[in-house]
Specification:
By secondary structure, this protein is an alpha/beta fold. It has 21 helices and 25 strands. Strand 14, helix 15 and strand 15 form a beta-alpha-beta unit. Helix 1 crosses helix 9. The C terminus is likely disordered. Bound molecules: glutamine. The site of glutamine (GLN) has 10 residues, from strand 19.
Length: 605
């Protein structure tokens, strides 16, 4: 096993995660098998209890692990399936050491950060790196490890120490350190400044780690003399200094690395020069170019709670983007704060209310994503009602499905107080109820989590067709509440159709309104398994419906990613839906979190 460690310097939010994933992409294109580990030096055991408002979305894995959103990037970029152990946190390491201490495994010794914590970190990395993640047998060739935070943070110290020891232990030729840093450009002359990078490399060396490669974030390509200077002061050959300048969309990053021969530099450090092939990256090149050229918009209203931080819905945005590219449309996301659609807002701030409704009414499709807590619930119900009555494509995910059921029970069954017991425990018409599997007192990892199977109840429904007429699909879950099985027959008699259920037939997984152009709700989160070249089936259906392509897509459902029974990637879609967009590329840039926002990737923030 060879290791590539990616660290960050100067400031946080340089796009370390995207850089690390892109390194993985290029190495994979060289013919190597790649796995990855993300280290988060916070004390939370996992991301499950962390607010998406503060930290970005909680990503869910097949095994039910609730992890940092960077693991989503790795899964999407490398088309792999990670395990919860691929996300190391300080909390997990300390918990494992303390458990051992309580068991008496340390035989009376004083338990210390060095060597006990640092040993535990190294053992964890070695163990997890060996887990196959690409569906093939045996371990990968290379493990990319991303260390969260910035060099110099107090909380990452034990990890730095452990990784320093680790690099020594695995030896030269098996360990490559890529340091992602910032080269700011100052004043009107546009001078590129090397000092912050010099300082952070000095910090790194002081902690016992020597960088092999510098990946410098800057607005423009580094000038030759700037590279020379960095090389001299940081003791890194200038061939190993790569510039990650701003690009129009995220798919360009692997190409940028490849074009600057980052793979050659890394493989040289890892003594792997003989085994590789040239990373062609045709698919990435095609996607990067297509994305730049898309002009014809598809407008999606995201009716959610955390509309201030788009990272809270990162995987949903990515899944929408994958589907939009497949339909040759430029994705425009209109953020509609759910609470702004409510009557109370109409009274208090009529302008805000009107603006929210205008956004909703201007949209080609309405999406209600997952969520917890009762804020904005009424607004989401109004949005679902609007989409249902006006025959606008609607997609409800997790809470979104529950909202659709509440709305239907209220408007169609006439049960005016119908609700989820999450929002009103005393409702007389609980159409969404607490699940026996959940826990009301413990928040961490107590939900129905991870991959579960959904069986189609009928073949003649949109979802079954979009998934490619398979018998069942495996998708990822994260919920505590579910549709009340006692009310299902009543809802179905009134026209709502539960076309997907779990193996017991008691748990509602997919709902559809057959009389509507596209009204679909899912209890699972299909966004977690969407891939750039293989958009998630129901996202594709949703976007296709929003731009008038649903029939064509349903006739050619061989391009979806997430049914386990389906393996064939999207094929020929661009040809089928080519609409002759040839306008010049838009500008965009990596934002603070390293993800492209604004016009660049079509996601309008
Ligand atoms: N709050 C709802 C539940 O727990 C929905 C959860 C979600 O959308 N992820 O069931």
């Amino acid at each position: 096993m060879k290791y590539v460690l990616v660290t960050g310097g100067v400031v946080s939010g340089l796009g370390k995660g995207v850089t690390a994933s892109s390194i993985g992409v290029v190495l994979k294109a060289c013919g190597l098998r790649v796995t990855s580990i993300k280290i988060d030096p916070y004390l939370n055991t996992d991301a499950g209890t962390m607010s998406p408002f503060e930290h970005g979305e909680v990503f869910v894995l097949d095994d039910g692990g609730e992890v940092d959103l960077d693991l989503g990037n790795y899964e999407r970029f490398l088309d792999i399936k990670l395990t919860r152990d691929n996300n190391i946190t300080t909390g997990k390491i300390y918990q494992s050491v303390l458990d051992k201490e309580r068991r008496g495994d340390y035989l009376g010794k004083t338990v210390q950060v060095v060597p006990h914590i640092t040993d535990a970190i190294q053992e964890w990395i070695e163990r997890v790196a060996m887990i196959p993640v690409d569906g093939k047998e045996g371990p990968a060739d290379i493990c990319v490890i991303e260390l969260g935070g910035t060099i110099g943070d107090i909380e990452s110290m034990p990890f730095i120490e452990a990784l320093g020891q680790f690099s020594y232990r695995v030896g030269a030729g098996n360990f490559c350190l890529v340091h992602v840093s910032l080269v700011p450009v100052l004043n009107v002359v546009g001078e590129q400044k090397t000092k912050p990078t010099q300082h952070s490399v000095r910090g790194l060396r002081g902690l016992g780690l020597t960088p092999n490669i510098l990946a410098c974030r800057s607005t423009m390509a580094l000038e030759e003399n700037v590279k020379e200077k960095l090389s001299q002061f940081c003791h890194v050959p200038s061939a190993n200094i790569i510039t990650l300048y701003d690009v129009s969309n995220i798919w360009h990053i692997p190409l940028l690395l490849r074009d600057q021969k980052a793979h050659e530099a890394i493989l040289k450090v890892l003594n792997l020069t003989g085994v590789n092939r040239y990373p062609m990256l045709e698919e990435w090149t095609r996607r990067a170019k297509t994305c730049d050229m898309l002009r014809n918009p598809v407008r999606i209203a995201m009716v959610g709670k955390y509309t201030g931080l788009s990272d809270s819905y990162l995987s949903v945005l990515k899944a929408l983007l994958h589907a939009s590219i497949a339909c040759c449309r430029k994705l425009v996301v209109e953020w509609v704060p759910a609470a702004d659609l409510e009557d109370t807002t109409a009274k208090e701030s009529p302008d805000v209310y009107e603006a929210a409704w205008n956004l909703l009414k201007g949209a080609d499709g309405v999406l209600v994503p997952g969520g917890f807590g009762d804020r904005g619930v009424q607004g989401k119900i109004l949005a679902a009602k609007y989409a249902r009555e006006n025959r606008i494509p609607f997609f409800g995910i997790c809470l979104g499905l529950q909202i659709a059921v509440i709305e239907y029970a209220r408007s169609v069954l006439g049960l005016h107080d119908a609700n989820s017991t999450e929002f009103n425990p005393n409702t007389k018409n609980p159409c969404v109820v607490f699940m026996p599997e959940g826990s009301k007192t413990h928040m961490g990892a107590t939900m129905r989590l991870g991959s579960r199977r959904t069986y189609f109840q009928v073949t003649d429904c949109k979802s079954a067709k979009l998934y490619g007429n398979v018998k069942y699909v495996d998708e990822r879950h994260r919920h505590r509440y579910e549709v009340n099985p006692d009310m299902v027959s009543e809802l179905e008699a009134a026209g709502l159709s539960f076309v997907g259920k779990d193996e017991s037939g008691q748990r509602m997984e997919i709902l559809e309104l057959p009389s509507h152009p596209y009204f679909v709700g899912v209890q699972f989160h299909p966004e977690f398994k969407s891939r750039p070249g293989k958009p998630s089936a129901l996202f594709l259906g949703f976007i296709a419906a929003a731009c008038g392509q649903l029939e064509a897509v349903m006739q050619n459902p061989s391009h979806v990613s997430n049914a386990t029974a389906i393996t064939s990637p999207i094929n020929g879609m661009a040809k089928v839906y080519q609409n002759g967009n040839t306008t010049k590329p838009a500008n965009g840039s990596l934002n603070g979190n390293g993800f492209l926002h604004s016009n660049g990737n079509g996601v309008h923030m």
